[in-house]
Amino acid sequence: MNRRTFIRHSGIVSATVLSQPVLSFPARDFPAVRVAQNQRNFRSKAVEETIQRVKGQIRNKELGWLFENCFPNTLDTTVDFAMVDGRPDTYVITGDIDAMWLRDSTAQVWPYLPLMKQDEPLRQLIEGVIHRQTRNIIKDPYANAFYKDDTKVGEWKDDRTDMKPGLHERKWEIDSLCYPVRLAYGYWKRTGDITPFGADWQTAMRLIVQTFREQQRKTGHGPYKFERTTSWATDGVPLGGYGYPVRPVGLICSTFRPSDDATVFSFLVPANFFAVISLRQMAEMLTVLKGDARLIADARALANEVETALKQYAVIQHPGIGKVYAYEVNGFGSYNLMDDANVPSLLSMPYLGAMSATDPIYQNTRRLVLSQDNPFYFAGKAGAGIGGPHAGMDMIWPISITMRALTSADDREISSCLTMLRTCNAGTGFMHESFHKNDPSTFTRKWFAWANTLFGELVLKTANERKHLLNQAG
Question: Mind telling me which SUPFAM superfamilies this protein's record contains (predicted)?
Fold first, then answer.
């Protein structure tokens, strides 16, 4: 079932309307909802030990229950691990959709990286994700989602783009090529292991730089275009599938956002910031690996060029707040002031390492996107947070609440986010893609592993850095 159909037909779950945003239940109301041990896809000793350690620090029973369910959800339900030709191979689905997104697969395993050194099978599993992502990038650097079976023909047979067997969807998104670099860099920094970064991986890195260069559109549109016959406006790309015009100022075009919704202006600012840090991480790794000197130089030069263009074109003077980062620009002076819940978002920039959380323009931008000045910021009886066009108006994404906490240094803000996340699960024991601002029992996607694992990452980070917040009753 495709993501759009899932949301439209079976993603909205209705139950009793919750009249209060914060509910309290006795422990007996927290049933076992985690997959039974004998049905789990992968079991990590380090993850299980972490669950027990952190649960012991959490005073609120519901919060502890959620952590126990959500943190291992990727391993329990979405990974398919095997040894192929003598090396690890890991296929990772998003949850309710049997396809592997380059973005989601990185985000889903990212919180487990600190545990690799004490769990060799877990390290192998993550190495397998790197191998699978490398293979997918080489197959098509413009695709965002892939099948395990290279011969499987996807459901989007009428898309006007270069579809081929093995592709679930071919929506060009800058972040799809940034996330695999983020995972590779994080793995390398944690382990020192260079085994996954052989000739194939370096070929994939070359394709990433080539694709970014093509999508600067300095000499024409480049080889990619996308059109789809659909009633969903955010799935369509105007003007022959290339999108609205941009001036070639050095920024990289992204036809789609990390939500898989089409951009309005193709220079997606948070994705370009992500590209800068990813290109520099790539160059650092290739230098240690003694890779292609020309590729290293090109990656660094491209990072510098995009960074310079961001300084010139991405900063907007807001009449009430001051200098802020726009969400999208076109190089002609047009801009889109908003933020979307999906990462990379403007809110998430410090989390991705693209800038400091104390950056004055980021702080101004944060105030904007977490207010009614952002058209996709919603506040109601059940909570407050950022959504986006993908799930519709008044639908808050738990990912945005989690990201707000992950990028905050304020105890009160973090505690408030944890409370909202705890009370928006609608008794299911898991996070969802989105929930209605006035009723958390109206939600989309019951099985969405990225939201679950990211929530687990927040609780683990809080346990390691601000344990006192978990000791509060909540």
Answer: Six-hairpin glycosidases
